[in-house]
Amino acid sequence: MRDTRRTASTLVLIGGLTLAACGTNAADSSPSSASPRAAAASSLPVTPAISASSTNQHAAFTVKEFDSFDSTSDSGWTATFQVLSSPAGNILVNPGKYDREVADFVKSIGGVDAIMITHGLCDKLRGLAAAMKTNAKVVAYIHQLGQPYLHDPKRNCSVEEGTSRTTDAKTSTFEESTTTIAGHRVQLIHLHGHTEGSTIFWFPDDNTMIGGDTVMSTQIGSASHPGGNEASRTAPIAKFKKLTFPSDARRYNGHDASTTYAELMKSNSDLA
Length: 272
Fold this sequence. Notes:
Metallo-beta-lactamase, Chain A, alpha/beta, 5 helices, 7-stranded mixed beta sheet
């Protein structure tokens, strides 16, 4: 357990961060169903990815992956999520569950200082309330366009899974920016399409990318569900292609195995 902990409440604003206190069946994915704010976001100028440090500033940085499965839904779903850990601070990403296995691991590293959510679909939220209850000082972050999904079972796809999940967990919101969360410098890159608020997280000092369900091994995530817009997928694809990352940068996401950035650019049909 660390002797000192930097809590997520000491968020350092660097690039304009604004704080405020699934299934694949198609819904209305026509261009007219897209949020005006999401459409506007697609025209944001591309911010070059921050270069990775020449030496890893967090030499003890580790990524622990967990799998979650929801046996209570009609069809069941599986997802992968991560805990990022270093002496600087610990971050839980997309808590698809928070059972004894996860809780014991989190306890072994001294707790988590922040929870970061790439997008608001139900398979990223199932363990959120329990994680926040267990880690009393933790702060959870989600893109401002993703926050409404927490309270809407149709938009978060839990209705498609035969359940109706919402959460009253208090979350803070962000916009595309560069900031420091739980002691880690992170670039928040908004790539809507899979959902309106889908965001990937680039940790340059740790040479690590969290792609959520957007940047996956074989494709950019599908938008054929409530809140997604298949017609707008071209904008985030073009945006990601303009970014560059070290070839050995490690990429993790929500539904398949991790790869390097170099491997991703060869295996992903939307990016190759």
